[in-house]
Amino acid sequence: MSPVENKSIEVFAARLEPAGTRFDAPADVPLLQAALRAGIELPSSCRNGTCRTCMCRLLEGRIAYRIEWPGLSLEEKQEGLILPCVAYPASSVVIELLRR
Fold first, then answer.
1. Helices of type H across the chain
2. Which tens digit of pLDDT belongs to each residue from 41-90?
3. Most distant CA pair in the chain: distance in Å?
């Protein structure tokens, strides 16, 4: 029997503005899913980066995508827009809900 590796997953702090709601954001879970696990409902639909329903603005921190190019234009990405359904935290983050 080989030893089982015990890899701990880094958990970052996430804050949702404008309410200031905080939740834990594990590095291996998309931000949308982390918020849902904490009982925080964010707008969502497809959960695969194409519908743009969950679009938010990243105010602080870093995220990473595991898909090559989610449903955002280059200009939107440069403006700090993210898709929490496919965005994984790479640091503690502050995200802003967009008014619709």
1. 31-37, 74-78
2. 999 998 888 899 999 999 999 999 988 767 899 899 999 999 999 999 99
3. 55
| Closest CA relative to residue 31, chosen from 5, 79, 75, 70 | 70
| Torsion angle of C-alpha atoms 65, 67, 68, 73, degrees rounded to 10 | -70
Torsion (CA) 80, 30, 10, 96 in degrees, nearest 10:
40
The token pair that represents 96 in the structure block: 């802003």
Sorted by where each starts, the structural domains of the chain and their CATH numbers stand as 11-97 (3.10.20.30)
How far apart are the C-alpha atoms of 81 and 59, rounded to whole Å?
9
Residue in this structure with the two tokens 């879970």, named with its chain if needed: 29
- pLDDT beyond 60 at 4: no
Distance of alpha carbon 37 from alpha carbon 39, whole angstroms? 5
| The token pair that represents 26 in the structure block | 């594990």
